Amino acid sequence: MLALITGGSGFVGKHLADHLSDCGDDVLTTDISDGGPDLLDQTGINELILSAQPQVVYHLAAQADVGSSWESPTTTFRINAEGTLNVLSACRGAGVERVLTISSAEVYGKVPHERLPIVESLPLAPASPYAVSKVAAEMISTYEASRGLEVMCARSFNHFGPGQNINFVTSALAHRILQAKKDGRKNIPVGRLDTRRDFTDVRDVVRSYRSIISKGVSGESYNVCSGEDRSIGELAKALMTASGYMIDLVPDASLQRPSDIPVLRGDNTKIKSHTGWEPIVEFEETIKDIIETTQSLIDLNS
Fold it and tell me: What share of the chain is helix, strand, coil (3-state, %, to 5)?
């Protein structure tokens, strides 16, 4: 199977390319950072997909930073919504067999405790510019599915693992903890510690993406999640334990988002029943790998 990954140089894109290759797929990647076309360049996207002739497309490219979306809402919306429209239109025109678009659990918004765990039928209530852009991208995916394109959507909850950008909470905490250890500091600044999230190892996430491409139902959305939630405080403690360095966590208002969702915990029954996927990497293994890769990065830059 010939697969094209947009955003192939990103955190998830690299892991996905490795997984697809391990499964015997032929893999092509495109990324604006490597000279690939901008998602907003419809002509460039059309030419790329028409010339590559992939059988399946994994559309990962996006403005994926929730915090940055508050500063640049228009840019975020255009990249994530208009960009998705351009990719899907090109796929339909080139005769691509199946497409996976990547959404986010952020589309559910602030979910009452009694509605947890979150199922896919829960009404969407986006609470950030990023989430709004992802809802729009989902609607575009549904529209293209109605026109005959085989397209599915993955609603990814928090994924983490080795190699993630330090703009994201787990890698940011790991970097601050290990840098403090190196410098002999006894505290680090943090955002909210009571926020609870459903974390899944990126290596499980990319397995889910291929399972959806292979067995998912066109027009459907799938939660990609572990089914368990942990607080950011618990996450920080696990990272400190793995690093062998316990320090004080000092709240910093500048690290808090204008609107933060208290709890996100997903129900992965649908993806299990439709594709057979389930997460297999243990939380503690992921934490250990994050600490090891972050330490290597700090040592390299010393």
Answer: 50, 15, 35
